Amino acid sequence: MNQVAAPLLTPEQNSLALWALLVLVLPLIAGGLLLLFGKKLTRQGDWLAIAATGLAFFLSLYLFFQVWEKQAVHVTWPWFQLATGNTSIISFTTGVYLDNLAVLMLVIVTFISLLVQVFSVIYMHGEWRYHHYFGYLGIFTFSMLGIVLSDNLLLLFIFWELVGFSSYLLIGFWYEKDAAVLAGKKAFLFNRVGDIGFLFGIFLLYTYFHTFDLILLKNAIASGVNQGNNFLFPAITGQADAITLSYTWLTLAGLGIFCGCVGKSAQFPLQVWLPDAMEGPTPVSSLIHAATMVAAGVYLLSRCFPFFTEDALLVIAIIGGLTALLGALAATAQYDIKKILAFSTISQLGYMVMGMGVGAHDASLLHLVTHAFFKASLFLNAGIVIHAMHHAAHEFSDEHSDVQDIRNMGGFRKILPFTFYAYIPAAAALVGLPLFSGFLSKDAILTGAWGWAGFKSQNGNLLYYVIPVFAFGSVLLTGFYMAKHCFYIFFGESKLYKEPELLRENKTAEASGLLLVPVAILAVLSLAFFFSLNPFNYAGSWVMQGVSWQKLLMEQPGLSGGLLPAITTYLHEASYISLATAILSILLAVVGIWLGWLSYKKAVAAGGLSTITAPTSGFSRLAYRHFYLDAFYEKVIINPFMRLSGGAAAFDKNFIDYSLNTFAKIMVVLAKLIGWVDRWLVDGTVHLLVKVAGVTGKLGRFMQNGKVQSYYIFSLLGLILLFLYILAF
Amino acid sequence: MNNIPLIPVLLLGAVLFCLGILAVITKRHAIVVLMGIELIFNAANLNLVAFNRHQPDLMQGQVFSVFVMVIAAAESAVALAIILKVYSYFKTVNLDQIRHETDV
Amino acid sequence: MKEYISSRYNNSFFSVVGALLKGMQLTLQHFFRANKRREPTYVSDPNYFKQPEGLVTLTYPYESLPVPEVGRYRLHNEIDDCIVCDLCAKICPVNCIEIESIKATEDIGITSDGTKKRLHAAVFNIDLAKCCYCGLCTTVCPTDCLTMTKVYDFPETDIKNMIYHFTDLSPEQAQEKRQKYEQQQAEITEAKAAALRAKQEATRDKGNI
Amino acid sequence: MLALILCIVFLLLLVIVTAYAERKVAAFIQDRVGPTETGPHGILQSVMDVVKLLQKEDIIPSAADKRLFALAPIVMFAAVLAGFAVIPITPSAIASGAYLGVFYLLAIISLDVIGLLMAGWGSNNKYAVLGAMRSVGQIVSYEIPAGLAVLSVVMICQSLDLQEISFQQGILMNQFAGLENEVNYLFGLKALDLDVTHVGGITTWNIVRMPFLFIAFIIYFISSLAECNRAPFDIPEAESELVAGFHVEYSGFRFAALFLAEYSMMVLVSLVAVVLFLGSWNTPLPNIGSVQLATWTTGTPGALTGHLWGAFWLLAKTVLLLYTQIWIRWTYPRLRVDQLMHLCWKVFTPIMLVLVLLAGLWRLWMI
Amino acid sequence: MSLVLIFFYVFGFLAIASAAFMLATKNVLYAAFGLLVTLLSLAAIFILLFADFVAITQLMVYVGGVLVLILFGVMLSNQVQGRAVQSESVNGISGGLVASAIFGGLAYLILSADYLLPEGITVADAAPANTKSSIIAIGIRLITNFALPFEVASLILLIALMGAAYISTEDKHE
């Protein structure tokens, strides 16, 4: 096994792998030190965390330039061995896999993490357990990097769980608040639900292929031959014979892995934890929603892309499209500055997952990258705004107003101009306006979706067009809610605090430089130029080039077979789709913004910026409550169980008891009847009959005495009857 | 010949099993009923180990007897928690009295 | 409560462990100083205050702190100097001194300070189980024969032994002295009676004359 | 058989000495002299105490459950004594070389709990019941960190046999059947490439073979204090609240049995700590070049020198631990129940879980 | 009669006797101690059957765990000062009939079944000689052939732990 898994490595590759490991452990070391000794260090050790992450970032950059478009490094080490009794020994390997995708993720994760930590220095200043916060961030970054670097599913799963755990720590960081504790718990539990599926997917794959190694798995799967309903795989390592696997099981394995993504990337129907996760500190939201936790699901899909059959991909596409639409719809009705962004994240993740499902693998990853920057930027902007609101609320000793409600804000364009100008590019990128990064990636996904639908519906089944329609609908909604978000916060005039100075750090600066610099960097990175020299052509983007499926999967699309090349060809032929998508998406975005402006004007005109009431009209209430999904779970999962047990008890009491009681009653009536007949007709033999009937009635009552031990006796009588049967025959 | 024949062990198991059943049937105290259940588990375990002694190639018998113990531990923990809850509610653990209390 | 404690003390891991170790160190120091012993010296000894370390216990019956010369513990009566005046018995607040005196027939001697002794002490018992060590008896003693000594260690297994007998007369001697005195009294009474009778006779004689 | 008798006599002697040392050390720490009268420096005090207790009338309270009351001390004493059976005293002397020694020990210690419950309930006294309940709650809880600490050692040593674990911790390792080709590296780190198989001494003790085991040792030691109901975890016997806990009604030879069981328990846990963590009967002196300190102070296994050296080192370390137990008792005040449980469940158990994981990884990757 | 066989009969008799005592006594606590003796005798029989790991697990789980739990349950569910911990018997006759019928059936089945076992087998005698204890074999089986039941058992334990903890917590809402 080792001979197969570890081809000859050049010293350079070995050293690259070691550098990668250093990147991995740096945040862990910093985090561990902070958790243990943070209180003793100067400034509670935030410099240590930032320095470690910064170092990790620069190492990642080095790795990026060494690996990107040049080579793929796969280094393995023996991990552990299991003896299987009398047969051979099973070895497990672990290792580092660096390819274009991995180094890209490395850079993004460490970069966003670095910016978020710098931002947090001011944002979390004076916090009790300041050092714990940075420690948790370090562990979180470590876990995410582990997911990125793992070359096998088992290790990946371990880091996957670590991410879940550290996100639990971060979301519940303010554990004095009940809501934060509940949110952390909820996120944790919903992730577990997905992870069970993930685990079963891993087990299925292991059962068939006897390896966790992603590369070996990929090669094994790529060599499979489609035989109608089955796949024939040639003999793989450690296996004597070729194996035949049914399509259904492979689909199930793929869906199992997708379950993990559903939990972590907040896909329908497990997305409800994400809005609640806003209870965590805002920089944490920024980190979780931009580059790390939720992106992990998409990353996983990309890594495991070859393992998905065509049917599995279809499910993924449907779930993704549905999530995109539902998230966007919910976002339209929210008024919490962070909740809107949270639902927007759900929606955008839906895009990415849908992109994976429709085979737009590279477009999805491009969107992952661009989304990481602009969403981080938006959250950090929101953080500045909340910080300012808190500042003012503190000055006024105002503890009743909701400082996160956008209806309480307004006019920040003048008060916090720098923030406003940093906010605009990011928001525009999210909406998908041309010249901004979001346009590129969203356009790519939309084109892919359209192309997929077109290709699939060649047999006349137009239902496939539902997916692109969902996607385009989401574009419109995105424009609408982002416009609202922007207008409410930055336009008009401040609703709550009339003195703008109170919202600023001091007369000259609107906020501390450490808050503004990360935001500024991210805002600049939301421009399209960084991703493609031609801001209207995503195909030329260097990211797209680097992560295209031909490169990542080595021309082996895996179980989905010829789907990807076929779609590519189809898109090539129907070249109008690309152009139409671009125009349509811009149009929809603009219309969305216009509608948002109308809605804002209407609200201002109605003076209806009341912060107390929740929306009352039917649909917006539905959207505000997130389609009552939480209530749905309460009703569908929890209550039915309660009702089921209640029903069982009622069944026992009302049906079984009742029927036996009735039986007994009938017996008594019968006995009485016979008694009457006996008394009025003949005695003698009839008396005997009466006795018999009486005894039968008594037996019926006796068996039905409600004592569990008697029931036990009667059930044992059944066993005795069985003995008698055996004795008799 | 340090070998115990199979039949006596199985008969011992059968006796313990029946005593366990007797305890479950005849006792009024919920905890004694629980003890009877433990006795039944043990009788089953004895059979498993005895069979394992005579067919040890895969150790199924011993492995499964360990599983039986695990289940028994889980079972008794939950059962005792329930009994204590019942006690705190009805102030008795007498099965017949509990039945009368619930039989409204 | 919890907040109060955590605000007052540094509850971090290292300070707690440090405090625990400090305690262990303290007890260990005491343990190792156990090879030193406190000397049974009196407070006037210059060494008395220079022994802050080591065991403080004295193994009593074998060693003890010295008692000062003026220690006021067990009573002692120097019976040769005692004039059996009974003052001590009268002043005693707890009535622990029991004295029975016998008048002597003649002067029986002189005490060391020159007082004449005229009484025999038939019984001179001090019940030290009752004594409260107030010292009043010693202050009233005219001949300074009753004193307090520095003996403080005189436990007994029988409480009767706590009664100290100081008389130098055995009961037989006391009986003899008593008889002697009664005899003398009888003689004196007889002599007086004879004298009276003679006087009466003389008077009667004169009257007769 | 001889080993068994020797062990029992030896260990009972050790128990008696410990009871005496307890009083003497307490006195010294408090600047007193302690017992002095019976024998020179009072060394016969414990013997006399036992003799006195044996002479006393056997009082069983009339309201007590007589059978339970009478049986409880015997059950406790038997349980603790049974634990001694698997303790290796020297390289060739062990009462019973059970292959599952460690596991057996953990199981046997839990038998002790039954005796406690019998004593507490049988006394028909509310202090006794309260004391027994507290004691059982405490012992059962602390079995978890202690068991995990033992588990981490077992993971490192890959054996449940106490004698095998002992052999692994010294220069005699390769003489044990099955360990002929094993190699000890310093700190268990193969990467350091310092072969200390024949250096022996302290370098092959478990706390050095896997340095994290030192933390496990500390936790095991503290947990064992709780399992023996020793101060500062003596809330089951808290004089100021429960008079004397579960043995408040006992007197005469039954009290003596309880007393001996308690002190035997102390000796037993100290022996286990020494065997598992502190090199068992191995010498602490390493071979340095041609100065073969370890070889000189080990003797020949099986011969008289081997017996004497082995017993000496084992008992020396045990006595040191016993002294520490006494020392701790006379230093710290008693904990509250909630503090006790907090320490067990929220501090020790998580730390030990991490350490067990570490031990596993260490074994996988390092050795 | 080899020594092992004699020991087996002694412990078997002890197990039956103490189980019968458990049935006969009215005192719940005595019943628990009767069960204790049964469990200990069974542990001894396990050792005689070359199942030392199972025997010690029996000690640990049943004696150290389940029985302590039961004793705790008895003590917590009876007032210390009140009546003695008594338990009456019901269904004596019917229960006895059923149990003896089942025993008769079982005994008949055991005695009449054809076990297809090589009498005086050599495998069983050879196996303990190879390995000093059954624990190595059990350990290997547990993480290979029986890995799934092992994991499921751990899940069940966890669920039971959570369930028991949840059930026994005070219900604050009522």
TrEMBL record, chain A:
The record's annotation in Pfam families points to: Proton_antipo_M, Proton_antipo_N
Domain named NADH-Ubiquinone oxidoreductase (complex I) chain 5 N-terminal: residues: 90-134
Gene3D superfamilies named among the record's database cross-references: 1.20.5.2700
This protein's UniProt keywords: Membrane, Transmembrane, Transmembrane helix
Q: How does it sit in the membrane?
A: Multi-pass membrane protein
Look up the record and give one Gene Ontology term from the biological process aspect: ATP synthesis coupled electron transport
Q: Where in the cell is it found?
A: Endomembrane system; Membrane
Keyword Transmembrane helix among record annotations: yes
One GO cellular component from the entry?
Answer: endomembrane system
Q: Major location, coarse class?
A: membrane
Q: Name one GO molecular function term.
A: NADH dehydrogenase (ubiquinone) activity
Limits of the NADH:quinone oxidoreductase/Mrp antiporter transmembrane domain: 150-453
Q: Which InterPro entries match?
A: NADHpl_OxRdtase_5_subgr, ND/Mrp_TM, NU5C-like, Proton_antipo_N
Locate the transmembrane regions by residue number. 16-36, 48-68, 101-123, 130-149, 155-175, 187-209, 242-263, 284-301, 313-333, 340-360, 372-394, 415-436, 462-491, 512-533, 574-597, 711-728
- Signal peptide start-end: none
Output the PANTHER family linked to this UniProt entry: NADH-UBIQUINONE OXIDOREDUCTASE CHAIN 5 (PTHR42829)
**Name listed for the protein in its UniProt record:** NADH-quinone oxidoreductase subunit L
Write down the species: Adhaeribacter aerolatus
- Gene responsible for this protein: ndhF
UniProtKB/TrEMBL annotation, chain C:
Keyword Nucleotidyltransferase included in the entry's annotation: no
Key word DNA damage present in the record? Answer: no
Species: Adhaeribacter aerolatus
* Domain 4Fe-4S ferredoxin-type: from-to ranges: 71-102, 122-151
Tell me the protein's name. Answer: 4Fe-4S ferredoxin
Enumerate the SUPFAM superfamilies for this protein. 4Fe-4S ferredoxins (SSF54862)
Q: Which domain of life is it from?
A: Bacteria
* Assigned GO CC terms: membrane
What UniProt keywords are attached to this protein's entry?
4Fe-4S, Coiled coil, Iron, Iron-sulfur, Metal-binding, Repeat
Q: Name one Pfam family in it.
A: Fer4_7
MF-aspect GO terms: 4 iron, 4 sulfur cluster binding; metal ion binding; oxidoreductase activity, acting on NAD(P)H
Where, if anywhere, are coiled coils annotated?
A: 174-201
Automatic annotation (TrEMBL), chain D:
Query: Looking at its record, which EC class is this enzyme?
Result: translocase
Q: Which domain of life is it from?
A: Bacteria
Ranges that cross the membrane: 68-87, 99-121, 202-222, 255-281, 301-323, 343-365
EC numbers, comma separated: 7.1.1.-
> What kind of membrane protein is this, topologically?
Multi-pass membrane protein
* An example molecular function term from Gene Ontology annotations: oxidoreductase activity, acting on NAD(P)H, quinone or similar compound as acceptor
Which reactions appear under catalytic activity for this entry?
A: a quinone + NADH + 5 H(+)(in) = a quinol + NAD(+) + 4 H(+)(out)
Subcellular localization is given as:
Cell membrane; Membrane
Q: Which UniProt keywords apply?
A: Cell membrane, Membrane, NAD, Quinone, Translocase, Transmembrane, Transmembrane helix, Ubiquinone
Entry GO terms, CC:
plasma membrane
Q: GO biological process: any one?
A: aerobic respiration
**Protein role:** NDH-1 shuttles electrons from NADH, via FMN and iron-sulfur (Fe-S) centers, to quinones in the respiratory chain. The immediate electron acceptor for the enzyme in this species is believed to be ubiquinone. Couples the redox reaction to proton translocation (for every two electrons transferred, four hydrogen ions are translocated across the cytoplasmic membrane), and thus conserves the redox energy in a proton gradient. This subunit may bind ubiquinone.
* PANTHER family in the cross-refs: NADH DEHYDROGENASE SUBUNIT 1, NADH-UBIQUINONE OXIDOREDUCTASE CHAIN 1
Family label: Belongs to the complex I subunit 1 family.
Quaternary arrangement and interactors, per the entry? NDH-1 is composed of 14 different subunits. Subunits NuoA, H, J, K, L, M, N constitute the membrane sector of the complex.
What is this protein identified as? NADH-quinone oxidoreductase subunit H
Naturally occurring in which organism (per UniProt): Adhaeribacter aerolatus
Q: What is the lineage of its organism?
A: Bacteria, Pseudomonadati, Bacteroidota, Cytophagia, Cytophagales
Gene name of the encoded protein: nuoH_3
TrEMBL record, chain E:
How this chain sits in the membrane, per its record, is: Multi-pass membrane protein
> Which InterPro entries does the record cross-reference, listed alphabetically?
NADH_UbQ/plastoQ_OxRdtase_su6, Nuo/plastoQ_OxRdtase_6_NuoJ
Instruction: Decide whether keyword Membrane is in the record.
Output: yes
Transmembrane: present as a keyword of the record?
yes
Q: What class of enzyme is it?
A: translocase
Q: Which GO terms describe its cellular component?
A: plasma membrane
- GO terms for molecular function, please? NADH dehydrogenase (ubiquinone) activity; quinone binding
Q: What is the name listed in the Swiss-Prot or TrEMBL entry for this protein?
A: NADH-quinone oxidoreductase subunit J
Organismal lineage: Bacteria, Pseudomonadati, Bacteroidota, Cytophagia, Cytophagales
- Name the gene: ndhG
